[in-house]
Amino acid sequence: MPETSDLSTMFNDAGMWAALIAACIGTYLWRGLGVFLSGKISQDSELFNWLSAVTYAMVAALTLRIILLPVGLLATVPIHVRIVVTVLAVLVMISKKEKRMVPALLTGTIGLVLYGFWINHF
């Protein structure tokens, strides 16, 4: 483990600016490459279909992980409550054809807030 004096030398003003500049270059290089290549990729191509499938799979997996294996404050909520609130939010999501994301998110949020209120006051 580095000594305190080594850390202060490593994280001086110049080092912080260098780290910030390197992070910006790394971030904007990939963003610029994405913008450059976005016009060259057909939305009907197999590559685009594969990227869409991977993206949806990652979002679904992370959502399921948050519901079934939460950390932090959500871990104090029993699993049956989390599943009921999730089912209600999904039902709201599939009930309308348009403008359904905000009502579904509000359903989940309000459901968990009401559960917290119920537990703390009754």
Which consecutive residue ranges, at least 5 long each, have pLDDT under 50?
Answer: none
- C-alpha Rg, in Å? 23 Å
Number of helices: 5
Q: What's the total number of strands? A: 0
Q: How big a fraction of the residues is strand?
A: under 5%
Share in helix: over 70%
Succession of helices and strands: HHHHH
End-to-end distance, in Å? 51 Å
Shape: flat
Overall pLDDT:
88
Largest sheet: none
Structural class: mainly alpha
Structure commentary:
The protein has five helices and no strands. By secondary structure, it is an all-alpha fold. It has a domain of 52 residues. Helix 4 runs antiparallel to helix 5. It is flat.
How are the elements arranged and paired?
Elements: H1 4-10, H2 13-38, H3 46-68, H4 79-95, H5 101-121
Helix pairs in contact: 4-5
Give a short summary of the structure:
By secondary structure, the protein is an all-alpha fold. It is 77% helix and 0% strand. The protein has a domain at 71-122.
Features:
single chain, 122 residues, mainly alpha, 5 helices, flat
